[in-house]
Amino acid sequence: MIELNRVYNENCIETMARMPEDFVDMTVTSPPYDDLRDYNGYHFPVEDIAAGLFRVTKPGGVVIWVVGDRTVKGSESLSSFEHAFRFREAGFRVHDTMIYAKNNPIPSDCGKRYRQCFEYMFCFSKGQPKTFNPITQKIKQEKAFKSFRITKVGRNDLAHDHIAPKERKLNNIFFYNVGTSSSKDKVAFDHPAIFPEKLVEDQIHTWTDEGDLVYDCFMGSGTTAKIAHLQKRRWIGSEISEEYVKIATERLSQYIDAHNFSAAR
User: Fold this and answer.
1) Under CATH, to which class is 6-134+171-264 assigned?
2) Which stretches does DSSP call E strand in 22-56?
3) Exposure winner among 153, 194, 256, 258, fewest CB in 10 A?
């Protein structure tokens, strides 16, 4: 049995084992890749996690997998692409490779390379995504234009004019603030690497509708749960670190009545 609106203090493989097949509409998460983040020594089997997520994801559901690479002895690890191959082998489509670009990356000495300021944001889908609510931006040009095609005898104008669209979908490079400007919840920063809230907000909005079920298999400070709740989605989280579960619980208590969510071992 699995309960909704709950952070499970355990390995995500254990949590998924209690889920029925075709259960989750969307997973959004960032794994502890390449030892870049301190998750109390936890190392994860990406093949098993990918297989578990494929089993519990509904047809048409997606996994948003935010991951980067470590530089070791002057060479990038390419772990992010290894993850993409593992998810494809599990049965997912690599529906989109988006970029999460950081407006204010942490200053660092990069040696003979440019400052690292982005992570990959893969969208793995179980078949064709069932939901797509694109974020759009306004277009200044609103003039009419005439369609035409080139034939053997020259240009042939079509019968009707077209009005240029007033808005268009965003590009697949997303820019977000990181660090203390990414959330107003001070307790969240007791965690070493929190999700920008706007990143989670944009992705949940895009790939789910109200009432859908969102999962985070590395819940961390609770960002996914908070944003899913505020966007009227149901949610489940797994977090192996008891310390981080306490952080998430304290943070979520500001937004969700204690009777409506819980942390469990």
Assistant:
1) alpha beta
2) 24-29
3) 153
